[in-house]
Design goal:
302 residues; five-stranded parallel beta sheet; 12 helices; 5 strands; 7% strand
């Protein structure tokens, strides 16, 4: 009844139902979650990969062309070699640091806690719940047991990646590692998103070949280790509600890895997320009217 205050019993029943819904979902043994050892191994594979080594050699060649290395004479020769070795170590160290700053730290217990919070919160915005196509869910579940998934959802709201992860967990599907802009790596929120599978990247890699190589290899290694990956290939949220032209770089990287046999296979899953009402509708109206985009902060996201 609208306006009727819920009794303690109703509240307790709802609370217990949400706990059961989120924490009672069995974890499919086919859907592994990376351990700390897995994450360290993935980092090692990325830093020592052929792609990253080539990027480092290219950077060394450029620095030599710019006169960073000495030349001529025996004494200068040893100094040149030493400088090149030091530069290479620095670049390797930077590649490792890029992985550390970028990498997700997906944690299943924490992901369940996040989903429980979402179960309570989403009811306030979407009282009719989340509707999925059960036939497609079953199809994706079967495929996920054979090959890693590449989820390609539409992007209309910050709620997209939360809802998709929530739906994947409740339907016993593999939790995704999600490409996210570093603008979301803010205090408190960023830590929870990282535990939920987000890995943060710069908006543009232009002029930074090493960063691009590390990102591309990290995505390939996640799939190679059997983990589902998610990318919003529109690149940003659509303010108008229309699907934006895709940015093909992410998919090109995956296709090239398969063509070069660095990756056995992957299954692309287009995902359409539609809303009765988008939570950011007021800010979208302001932006479409000419106002500047608000910077993401803890208060604006919450």
């Amino acid at each position: 009844v609208p306006g009727k205050r819920r009794s303690w019993y109703d509240w307790a029943t709802s609370f217990a139902a949400d706990i059961t819904r989120v924490f009672g979902v069995p974890h499919d043994e086919h859907h592994s979650v990376p351990t700390r050892v897995d994450r360290l191994h993935i980092k090692e594979c990325v830093v020592n990969s052929e792609r990253v080594r080539v990027a480092i050699q290219h950077a060394l060649h450029e620095s030599r062309g710019n006169g960073s290395s000495g030349g001529g004479g025996s004494g200068h020769g040893s100094s040149s070699v030493r400088t090149r070795d030091e530069r290479q170590r620095m670049l390797l160290k930077r590649a490792g640091k890029i992985v550390d700053n970028m990498a997700a730290a997906l944690n299943l217990p924490m992901a369940r806690v996040i989903c429980w919070v979402l179960a309570k919160t989403l009811k306030q915005f979407y009282p009719m719940g989340i509707q999925l196509d059960p036939t497609q869910v079953s199809r994706v579940r079967r495929v996920a047991r054979r090959v890693p998934l590449v989820l390609l959802p539409t992007h209309r709201s910050h709620v997209d990646y939360l809802i998709l992860g929530y739906a994947m967990l409740l339907n016993n599907l593999p939790l995704p590692h999600t490409v996210a802009g570093e603008n979301l790596n803010i205090p408190i929120v960023g830590r929870f998103l990282r535990a939920g599978g987000a890995f943060f990247i710069k908006r543009t890699f232009r002029g930074d070949a090493l960063y691009a190589a590390v990102f591309n290899e990290y995505c390939v290694q996640l799939l190679k280790h059997g983990f589902t990956t998610e990318c919003f290939i529109e690149g940003t949220r659509s303010r108008s509600g229309k699907v934006l032209p895709p940015k093909a770089g992410f998919l090109i990287n995956i296709v090239e890895a398969i063509a070069e046999r660095r990756l056995d296979d992957a299954y692309a899953v287009p995902v359409n997320i539609s809303y009765d009402r988008i939570v950011e509708h007021k800010s979208y109206i302001n932006e479409l009217s000419g106002a500047n985009k608000e910077k993401e902060t803890f208060s604006t996201l919450v």
